[in-house]
Amino acid sequence: MGGGRADRESVFGEGRRRAVSGQRPETTGGRTSNPGAGQFQDLVCNGRPLYEHVAEAVAAWSSENTGACGLGDVGAVVGATQPAELARLRALLPNVVFLIPGYGAQGGSAADTAAGFRPDGTGAIVNSARGITACFKPGESRWEAAVEAATRQARASLGPVDIPGFNPECLGLV
């Protein structure tokens, strides 16, 4: 990335462009889980970290089109490896869906993800990519069993799917 306008637009504008055009949006920047994320995301601009400025933009874009659950159609990527920032961003973005990477192989625990959910148990999708897709050695003949076991362990660790007060119709799950 060269740092020009086109690069900024591709990083931060994609969610907004897709939402405005009527397409299903993708999540956009936030506070990611990778170890080097703070190099830029924690830079202080006008007295606040950069990731909070990004969050402010995401909140505005998301508020333009909210669904029956009160969640907007532009989401934010907010990693489980920084639970304090995750809690801070949930407070700043109560109506934004979070994609929460960093659970499992990157070091985030189920407890670390909790602050990313709204009080009704909605508003977040926890992602465990490496913890599931890389849970076996190359050439392992029973890789499918290893993936299934890792998936079951992640689901058990993250807790029950039945959330008191959760309305599955709100998300189109019924």
Question: How are the elements arranged and paired?
Answer:
Blueprint: H1 5-20, E1 28-31, H2 38-41, E2 44-45, E3 48-49, H3 50-63, E4 76-78, H4 83-92, E5 98-100, H5 110-113, E6 124-126, H6 130-133, H7 143-158
Parallel strand pairs: 1-4, 4-5, 5-6
Antiparallel strand pairs: 2-3
- Can you give the helix content as a percent range? 25-40%
Q: Which structural class do you get from the secondary structure elements?
A: alpha/beta
**Residue share in β-strands:** 5-15%
- Taken in chain order, the helices and strands follow as HEHEEHEHEHEHH
Mean pLDDT: 77
Number of helices: 7
Domains, number: 2
Q: Major sheet: size, sense and barrel closure? A: 4 strands, parallel
Shape: globular
State the distance separating the first and last CA atoms: 42 Å
CATH topology type of the largest domain:
TIM Barrel
At the fourth level of CATH, the homologous superfamily of the largest domain is: Aldolase class I
Name of the CATH first level of the largest domain: Alpha Beta
Query: Using only CA atoms, what is the Rg?
Result: 17 Å
CATH architecture of the largest domain: Alpha-Beta Barrel
Number of strands: 6
Strand order of the largest sheet: 1-4-5-6
